[in-house]
Structures are given as structure tokens and as C-alpha cells.
Design a protein that fits this description.
Organism: Psychroflexus torquis (strain ATCC 700755 / CIP 106069 / ACAM 623)
Largest sheet: 8 strands, mixed
InterPro entries: A/G_cyclase, Adenylyl/Guanylyl_Cyclase_3/4, Nucleotide_cyclase
Structural class: alpha+beta
Number of domains: 2
Strand content: 15-25%
Protein name: Adenylate/guanylate cyclase-like protein
Keywords: Membrane, Transmembrane, Transmembrane helix
GO molecular function, one term: adenylate cyclase activity
Helix content: 55-70%
Order of helices and strands: HHHHHHEHHEEHHHEEHEHEE
Distance between the termini: 28 Å
Length: 364
């Protein structure tokens, strides 16, 4: 089975392939309606067959979409991460021009070789490719492909800005009406953030937050979590209930983040003169989820579980621990031999009438 991280990457690549396949199919339909039943392209005189053209374009579209998706998610995400969108667009466009040009030439060479049964040195093989490449038809095709690239680039940027699940929910209309869900929440907050900001300055502090959140991402994805909100120096992570308790994902996420920060501690120390530390509270319960807003829409979770989780996280300072979880959650997790849960007692958290039992969790 693929890991959650691999599954997420596949889910991000597939829409790029679909975009290009749909675009290729639309192009073939337009081409067929324009040419009718003739057996050649009037512009170049090259041979035309609907089924051959259909298969060729769909294969090209699939390959181009796959290459585009892989490059976007594996290469450009890291290489151009800090570049403005316009610079990204220009650099990627130049690169994809070369890719498209190469795919078009190679595929036409292969098609003509198959159709004419000629050798690669035969001028009759090369002439149709030259005619296709340097004429209005190819330029039109190139421009059409750029529209597909622009759509995919826009989609890719939107996924980065508002999240893959939010995009999926938008298209499926999952939260167009409110619904009740069982979820696990983790409120994770940086320790002494005000002191750090005053020490290194707000510009450097912003960069530290950027690195800090980026370094958490792998742990969140690996444990099937979703980033619900960034609130200053606090991040709210959410899981569907079953995913959150599966393999202790919600607790494991905290310690994976801790491992990553320890691994990167020397880099933080060298770059900022400080290593960020954090504390977290984890709790589970029912929330009402739905889309809110008019000018700007977003998915909002409401319910006592969020307020309680925030209060649990705040209690970490009082108890002198890094991680507190509720008794509700501790009862369903299988902490086993990897983690040790220690009862901290019953607490009356601010804003709640009922007492709540809390446990600190650490690795054995």
C-alpha cells in the first residue's frame, strides 16, 4: 500500500493528467468538426485520420499531463517555492515550450515512421514534421496547450494556498450544507513566541514561522492529518476521527514534528539564533462543519471540542509538559509500548462547566 504522503502526491498529480486529457479530447473534437471527412490537413497537406489523431493526441496529452504533474509536485515545488507567481509562470512557460516542442516533433516522427514505413533518414519522413512544426496549425496548437498549462498552474497554486481537500470539497460541494462530523483536533503552539519575535525582529520571525510550518508538513501528511488553520504562531491540525486514532496518528504526529525540529535544530540555531519549541493539546468530539462567508468562503468547524482543545493546550504551561490529551481520547488510543500516558488529574478549564481528565503523553 502507498503511504499517506505518496497517496497525497498521486492525488495532486492525477488532476493535471485529467486537465490535459480533457483538453486533448476537446482539441480532437474541434479538429474533427473543422476538417470534416477530408483525409489531409489543408494547411500542410499532411495525412489526417480521426482515429490515428485521437490516439496520438490522447497519448501526448497523458504524457504531457504526467510530466507536468511530476515536475510541479516533485521539482518546481522546491526549486521555485519562494518565487513570485509571475516569475514562476515565466520560467515554467519557457521550460514547457521546450518540452512541448520536443514531444510534438518526436511523436510526429514516430507517427510518420509507422504510417509510411520509412527509415529515419528518408526526407519524406522529415518533411511532414517540418511542415507541421513551422506553420499556423502548430502555433495554434501550442497556444491551446498553453491554456491547459495555465489552468494546471493555477490549480497547482490554489492547492498550495487553500489546500487539496478544500479544492476537492469545493468541486464536490461537500460542505455546501452543514454536516456533523467526528474529528480529532490538535492545537500546537510555539513556546515563548513573543520573546523570540522581540529577539530576532519581526522580519526574521516571519521567516522562522515559514520554515517552522514547512518543517511540520511532512509529519502532518504522513499521519493523514489536515491543516485546518494557522493562527499566528499556532497551527490547528484536524483528522477524521478514525484516521486520527488509527496507529495513534494524532499523537504520533506530535512526536514526528518534534523529531523533525530536533533534526533541524542546528539549522534554526545558525539561521535565527534560536530553536523553536512547542506544546500541544489533543482532543476529539463532534463538530458542525460547513462553508461560511460571502466575499471569501472557507470551511468552518464549530463546536465545544475546539474550545476545549485550545484550553487543554493552554494547560500545558501549568503542568510543565509538552503534550496533553483528554481522557476521552486516551481511552480509545492504543498507546501500547511506544508511549506512556500519565494521569494529571481533573481540571475545570476556562469556559467549561464540567471537569475534564487530562493525561500527559511521552515516548517510552
Amino acid at each position: 500500500m502507498l503511504s499517506p504522503k505518496r497517496v497525497r502526491l498521486v492525488k495532486k498529480i492525477i488532476p493535471h493528467i485529467i486537465f490535459f486529457l480533457f483538453g486533448g479530447l476537446l482539441y480532437i473534437i474541434i479538429e474533427r468538426s473543422t476538417l470534416g471527412n477530408i483525409d489531409h490537413y489543408p494547411e500542410t497537406g499532411n495525412y489526417y485520420n480521426f482515429w490515428v489523431s485521437l490516439n496520438t493526441v490522447l497519448i501526448q496529452s497523458f504524457i504531457l499531463g504526467l510530466i507536468f504533474g511530476i515536475l510541479e509536485e516533485y521539482i518546481f515545488k522546491n526549486v521555485l517555492q519562494r518565487k513570485p507567481f509571475l516569475i514562476k509562470l515565466i520560467l515554467k512557460t519557457i521550460f514547457y515550450v521546450v518540452i512541448i516542442f520536443a514531444i510534438a516533433i518526436i511523436s510526429n516522427l514516430i507517427l510518420n515512421l509507422w504510417r509510411m514505413n520509412l527509415t529515419q533518414s528518408d526526407s519524406d519522413l522529415i518533411r511532414p514534421v517540418v511542415n507541421f512544426t513551422f506553420n499556423y496549425l502548430f502555433l495554434t496548437t501550442l497556444g491551446y496547450t498553453f491554456v491547459l498549462i495555465g489552468t494546471s498552474l493555477f490549480y497547482s497554486e490554489m492547492v498550495d494556498y487553500i489546500g487539496l481537500r478544500a479544492i476537492t470539497n469545493f468541486f464536490t460541494g461537500k460542505y455546501s450544507k452543514s454536516k456533523v462530523e467526528d474529528r480529532v483536533f490538535m492545537f500546537l503552539d510555539m513556546k515563548s513566541s513573543t520573546t523570540i519575535a522581540e529577539k530576532i525582529g519581526h522580519k526574521q520571525y516571519y521567516q522562522l514561522l515559514n520554515d517552522y510550518y514547512r518543517d511540520m508538513t511532512s509529519a502532518i501528511v504522513s499521519t493523514e492529518g489536515e491543516i485546518y488553520q494557522y493562527v499566528g504562531d499556532e497551527i490547528v491540525v484536524s483528522w477524521y476521527y478514525k484516521k486520527g486514532i488509527k496507529d495513534n496518528n494524532c499523537v504520533r504526529c506530535f512526536f514526528l514534528i518534534k523529531d523533525q525540529m530536533e533534526k533541524r535544530s542546528s539549522s534554526y540555531q545558525q539561521k535565527f539564533g534560536v530553536v523553536p519549541r512547542f506544546k500541544a493539546g489533543i482532543h476529539s468530539g463532534q463538530v458542525t462543519a460547513g462553508s461560511v462567508g460571502v466575499i471569501k468562503k472557507e470551511i468552518l468547524f464549530t463546536g465545544d471540542v475546539l474550545n476545549t482543545t485550545a484550553r487543554i493546550q493552554g494547560q500545558c504551561n501549568e503542568e510543565g509538559v509538552d503534550l496533553l490529551i483528554s481522557q476521552t481520547l486516551e481511552a480509545v488510543l492504543d498507546l501500547g509500548k511506544k508511549y506512556e500516558a500519565q494521569a494529571k488529574g481533573s481540571f475545570e478549564l476556562r469556559g467549561r462547566d464540567q471537569m475534564i481528565d487530562l493525561f500527559s503523553v511521552d515516548r517510552i
